[in-house]
Specification:
CATH topology of the largest domain: Rossmann fold
Number of strands: 30
Subcellular location: Cell membrane
Keywords: Cell membrane, Fatty acid metabolism, Ligase, Lipid metabolism, Lipid transport, Membrane, Nucleotide-binding, Transmembrane, Transmembrane helix, Transport
Strand order of the largest sheet: 2-1-11-10-12-13-14-15
Distance between the termini: 70 Å
Helix content: 25-40%
CATH superfamily of the largest domain: ANL, N-terminal domain
Shape: globular
Catalytic activity: a long-chain fatty acid + ATP + CoA = a long-chain fatty acyl-CoA + AMP + diphosphate; a very long-chain fatty acid + ATP + CoA = a very long-chain fatty acyl-CoA + AMP + diphosphate; tetracosanoate + ATP + CoA = tetracosanoyl-CoA + AMP + diphosphate
Number of domains: 3
EC number: 6.2.1.3
CATH architecture of the largest domain: 3-Layer(aba) Sandwich
Membrane topology: Multi-pass membrane protein
Oligomer: single chain
Number of helices: 19
Structural class: alpha/beta
Length: 613
């Protein structure tokens, strides 16, 4: 008997030394399977995250739910305020179960009350990016199918700019103020203050299932204008489970300084409900107030994107850098060097780096703590959550296929396109009202004939130990300042300037910065010169700050493919170095309020970090 025990132990040790992460792999897959099993159970009973919220209210009504500036809102407060918001919509007579309401709001508690209130009457919200204006704002509103817009008081000017078009479509506009002097715009807060806070009947949402939409969150995907990704109630459960998979528990306090219209910020809110915990909400990220807030609210879990972590590491060191209770950071996009700097400076904070797309059906979590990795692959994970990294031609933007028409798996260490199988348990509902773009995200005949996979639009690679590393995005989108920039949209805006005939927009790497900075190769209109001040004013008026091209490159003509698509691969590789580019280059100078010639001296100041972009 002893011999068999020794043999068994020896086998286990051999397996462990060959794969030291096997126990972590098994434990993580068990967690994911539990989440999937729980969601399937919820689907059978139509148990939504709203039901979880109501249960949390009943279990501990006086527990703090939202900490905001100097205010504390308990779970009961949230229940009553969301009831009031729901009644404003009901009493208006403008909505019925299944309708969409667009929210154009900043980070503030009423964002949460309105969304919860909509769920209580069987409706849902489209979350509009509060940075967008004019044409982009109208586009995002229109593709949501909403007939009502609820906007923050400080965003009223942006609303009034598009108000004629909204009124022409018979859209009802509410402003979150006590009074509104603008004709044809209604006040929301005064009606909410007069509404009853009594509970609403569940019959108002009797047709809602976990396959029903809970929200629309906008994403650029990989091409074109922003698209409304459908976040079903089932998908919302998956999103809400990510922080708990990374280690968040029911005793934590989570800090949200990322925008709620973004998946990252909304994830924190949803996960707080899922765990029944307290969330500390900030209007917008502040590098100077970040740790003071964490100390003020006894925060134990923070959210991040790569840029926020870099900002925190770039501040001057302070004696109290480690004086906080934060034990877990959950997010994505942190560079390996920033990761090391962060834990070295701010203490042994566990980094829960994850990978996922807003509209995607698949996610990865770095549960092993491997610095720089976004997740880990294993036999168990592939078995229950089928996915693959396939060879991809970045110039033609198509997967490479073998003689039988199937995709070719990338080798270890080779960047490839990440794809994940679409199934009943891992669906891809697509984009609201955009069948063409939805179909572009579906790949057929990937591993075997007849299969169907989701195209993430991201290039990843995995190493000898099966750790995944994010490489780049493909297509017409790049990431800058934590936001996805749709190149087609930016190009459309730039070519509205008289002096610019044509534009090809892309992202270029800048040392010391996450993502890619916007650059536009432009062809000037015949007989006209670059009006650098006019271009600056135009992009400032029509594009959010993160989408404004930092660099311009004037070319006599723009290279295109046989189907007239701009060829950007060479331009991206050449970057913005005046030592290597003979074309005239310009740099966006905020102080001068124009684009100025990009000299070698300015280039050196940018690459050394002495000039901020």
């Amino acid at each position: 008997m002893l011999v068999w025990i020794v043999i068994a132990v020896g086998i286990l040790l051999a397996i462990f030394f060959r794969n030291p992460h096997i126990f972590q792999d098994v434990q993580f897959v068990r967690k994911k399977l539990k989440v999937r099993s729980r969601i399937l159970k919820y689907m059978q009973t139509n148990y939504t995250i709203l039901d979880r919220f109501v249960d949390a209210v009943n279990a501990d009504p006086h527990k703090p739910f939202v900490l905001f500036e100097e205010e504390t809102f308990t779970y009961r407060d949230a229940e009553e305020l969301s009831n009031k918001a729901a009644r404003v919509f009901l009493q208006s007579g403008l909505v019925k179960e299944g309708d969409t309401v667009a929210l154009f709001l900043r980070n503030e508690p009423v964002f949460l009350w309105v969304w919860l209130g909509l769920l209580k009457i069987g409706c849902f919200a489209a979350f509009l990016n509060f940075n967008i204006r004019s044409k982009s704002l109208l586009h995002c509103f229109n593709c949501s199918g909403a007939r009502i817009l609820v906007a923050a008081e400080e965003l009223q000017d942006a609303v009034e700019e598009v108000l004629p078009a909204l009124l022409e479509q018979q859209v009802t506009v509410f402003i979150l103020s006590d009074r509104c002097k603008t004709a044809d715009v209604r006040s929301f807060k005064d009606k909410m203050s007069q509404a009853s806070s009594e509970p609403l009947s569940k019959d108002l949402r009797s047709n809602v299932t976990l396959r029903s939409p809970a929200a629309y969150i906008y994403t650029s995907g990989t091409t074109g204008f922003p698209k409304a990704a459908v976040i079903s109630h089932a998908k919302l459960w998956q999103v809400a489970s990510f922080p708990s998979l990374a280690g968040m528990n029911s005793d934590d306090v989570i800090y949200i300084s990322l925008p709620l219209y973004h998946t990252s910020g909304f994830l924190g809110f949803a996960s707080a409900i899922e765990r029944g915990i307290t969330l500390a909400l900030r209007r917008q990220f502040s590098v100077s107030q970040f740790w003071d807030d964490c100390r003020k609210y006894d925060v134990t879990v923070i959210q991040y994107i790569g840029e926020t972590m870099r900002y925190l590491c770039n501040t001057h060191k302070k004696p109290n850098d480690r004086s906080h209770k934060v034990r877990l950071a959950v997010g994505n996009g942190i560079r390996a060097d920033v990761w090391r700097d962060f834990i070295s400076r701010f203490g042994n904070v566990q980094i829960g780096e994850f990978y996922g797309a807003t509209e995607g059906n698949f996610g990865l979590i770095n549960y092993s703590g491997k610095i720089g990795a976004v997740g880990r692959d294993s036999f168990f994970h592939r078995r229950y959550f089928p996915h693959a990294v396939i060879k991809f031609d970045v110039e033609t933007e198509t997967p490479l296929r073998d003689s039988s028409g199937l995709c070719i798996k990338a080798a270890k260490g080779e960047p490839g396109l990440l794809v994940s199988e679409i199934s009943l348990t891992a669906p891809f509902p697509g984009y609201k009202g955009d069948l063409q773009q939805s179909e572009k995200k579906r790949l057929h005949d990937v591993i075997r004939k007849g299969d169907l996979y989701f195209n993430t639009g991201d290039l990843l690679r995995f190493d000898e130990d099966n750790f995944y590393y994010f490489q780049d995005r493909v297509g017409d989108t790049f990431r800058w300042k934590g936001e996805n920039v749709a190149t087609t949209e930016v190009a459309d805006v730039i070519t509205m300037v008289d002096c610019i005939k044509e534009a090809s927009v892309y992202g270029v790497e800048v040392p010391g910065h996450e993502g890619r900075a916007g650059m536009a190769a432009i062809n000037l209109s015949k007989g006209l010169r670059l009006d650098s001040a006019a271009v600056f004013t135009h992009v400032e008026n029509f594009l959010p700050a993160y989408a404004r091209p930092r660099f311009l490159r004037i070319q006599s003509s723009l290279d295109v493919t046989g189907t007239f698509k701009h060829m950007k691969v060479k331009l991206v590789k050449e970057g913005f170095n005046p030592n290597q580019i003979s074309d005239p280059l310009y740099f966006l100078d905020v102080k001068e309020k124009r684009y100025v010639p990009l000299t070698v001296d300015i280039f050196n100041l940018i690459t050394s970090g002495q000039v901020k972009i």
